[in-house]
Amino acid sequence: MQNIPLCVRRLVKKYETRDPAKIAQAIGVTIKYKSYSHHTKGYFINTLRNKFIVVNKNLPEFEQRIVLAHELGHAILHSNRGTYMIREYTLFPKGIQENEANKFAAEFLIYDIDKNMIKDMSCDQIAQYFGVPKELVVYKFQK
C-alpha cells in the first residue's frame, strides 16, 4: 500500500485546495455527472489514456463530494488498472484497491486536526463534524 496520507498532503499542498473536483481537473481527469439508478454512485474509467470520473448527479451534493474523492483516489492510485465503480450496497467493499480509495477519500476529506480536539468525540460526532460517513472516520484513524 502506498503512503496515502503523504500522497494526499502533497496534492493538497501542490494545488492549494481540498476540492476533489479542482484537483481532478488539474491532473487531467474529466468529471461527468450523469443520472443513474440509486445503486450506482460513481466510477472511474481510464480508456485510451483518457481519464474520467463519473458521478451520479441524483445523489445529494455532500455524497457526490465523497464519491468524487473516492474516485479521485482511484485516478491517482490506480489509474493504470481500468474501471472502478461504487454501488450503493458496496460503498465500502473489501479489496485492496477499494480500501486504498476509501483511505484516500478519508485522508482527503477529514483534515489533519489536533487529536486533542477530537479525543472526546465519538466516531459519529467526528463524522458529523466533517460531513462524511462514519466509515470514512474509521479509515482515517486506522493504522
TrEMBL record:
Protein name per its UniProtKB record: ImmA/IrrE family metallo-endopeptidase
Any Pfam family: Peptidase_M78
Residues annotated as signal peptide: none
IrrE N-terminal-like domain span: 25-141
Domain of life: Bacteria
Organism: Formimonas warabiya
InterPro entries referenced in this protein's UniProt entry, alphabetically: IrrE_HExxH, Rad_response_metalloprotease
